[in-house]
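Let us work through a complete example step by step.
Step 1: write down the sequence.
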Amino acid sequence: MNAPMREGPVPGHFASPGGGYRAEDILNLVRRNIWLILAICATTLAVTAGYLSVQPDIYRAQAAMELTNSEVRLSQIDAQFESYELNSARIATVMDVLRSRNFAQTVATNLDLFDNQTFLPRPQDQPKPDKDTWKRMVVDYLLASYSVHRAGESLVITIQTEAQDPQTAARLANGIVRNFVETSVRDQTKVIDNSVAYLRGQVNALGEELSQKEVELAELIRTSALDDADLPVQLRRELNHLTSVLANLEGDGQGNSTEAGQIRAQIATLESRLDERTRNELAKNRLERYIDLLSTRYQTAIERLNEIEPRKDILQADARQISKAEIPVAPAAPNRGATLAVVLAASLVLGFLLALLRGALNRTVEDGAQATQISGRPNLATIPHVRRRGVLARRHDPVSLLRRFPRSGFSESLRSFFTIWSSQRRESDAPKLVMVTSASQHEGKSTISSAFAASAALDGLRVLLLDFDSQHAGASDILHVQAEGLPVAALADGSASWRDAVRPVPDFERLDVLSFPAGTSWTSRLISTFAARVVPDLREEYDLVVLDTPPALSSADAVRFGTIADEALVVVRAGQTTEGALQATIQKLERAGIVVGGTLVNDVETRLYRQHSNGAGHEYA
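Step 2: predict the structure and record it as tokens.
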């Protein structure tokens, strides 16, 4: 009877065993929350209709401009015109400029929007804003009134404007395009004017400096006699002669004479004049090179000035308007019909999502498919809820219901369960001792165990119901058996036989009940004694023995009794048993080595949870 404990699947209300969502689960979800979904739809539609009724009509206009394929820009580095091909970065920059506050403020100024009460009326019930605040308000309103679009890699940029007045909408669209074109020309003109002024200043400054350096060069040549090319030769010839004379005097021993001193002084003078001549020639060379450089810069500045000045008359704008905005004849918004349709669809989706959230937060088991998903065991039956009958709305008697209404949904579901359960094994392998338990109290465990035993007896089996739930004795009461119960002490010492305590169920020839006194404490020794002395006889005497045990999570006796059973069935009450409780029950039973044959979902409202599998029953008239 030991079985390996298996990990149950992750809980999920609407996931099928295969991991997807079944159409039946979604349909049941909608049925259970139909009024919530309808209320959300009605509320959202009413709020939307009220909102649309007070919204003013909005007119929409559209203008388009084409950017030039290439731009000719004046380089700030060398003051030369350079061509730049338009790329995505440049186009993105243009679009950012069109959405900038500075550009919007320029448009507002050119279109006189700061004083236009039609465009933005001044607030009447509020303090009058100051000038700067009002300008910010107008610019903000203007930025919110238009959008900039570009289709793919196109060079065409579309300006779309919205306004409550159709003329204003068209005027804004055309004004934005015209302002961008005029601004691009004005900016280029400003750059050229600045460059021309700069180059003219450079030409004047370079011309003056060039003239000054030429005067310095002439003065240097005149004062240093640099135009006399024979002077250095004469000085060197005279220096060589004096050097030879000095050498002869020193050879004759007259190196210290007065004549020798005079010659040395003349030699020093000549050397000084030669050094000064060399320095002046170097200065002359440097000055000539600098004059050449100034002359080149001067000529370059003149050439660039001559190139830039004519460009002012042939400037090309960065864009040209290719589509003019026409005055709209019908409002573009609000589209009340389409808006209500979209809101209806959105409210349906919202209602479904809230229903899904409600189902996700509701961690109770609702039907057989969910019980199978949570427990990892087959759901053998879905027992429908039986409404109270009669004028006094008395609770139903499940045993008498099986006899009086054999074609009811309750009876058919029990019969279907017994057929499914017994057909899963060959007759020789069929369990004879079946334990019926639940996670906690008030889940219909005793009702299901009693009805299970009664249905099997009606099917021709010899059945015994062991009422181990001595605290409540619910199964004995349901079967209308008033038994004193078998004393456990007498059972343990062999002074009493279990047959003496067995009581037949009225109107059921093949159904007996064996109960025990209230407050009986079942120890492991007593259960072992019962298993050794009684269970073999029960297997011989009866075709089926149903054990009605206490709830598995609230009493340890359920696990103890399960050790003598061939199989355990777990009763789940729809809408009450939580997923965690069901999982904990399955795990607790398996840890004790008890084979869990499956679940039975009890008290299902068939109008909300329609089943077509997993042992579901059908209501018959």
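Step 3: interpret the result. Residues 1-19, 390-394, 610-621 have pLDDT under 50 and may be disordered.
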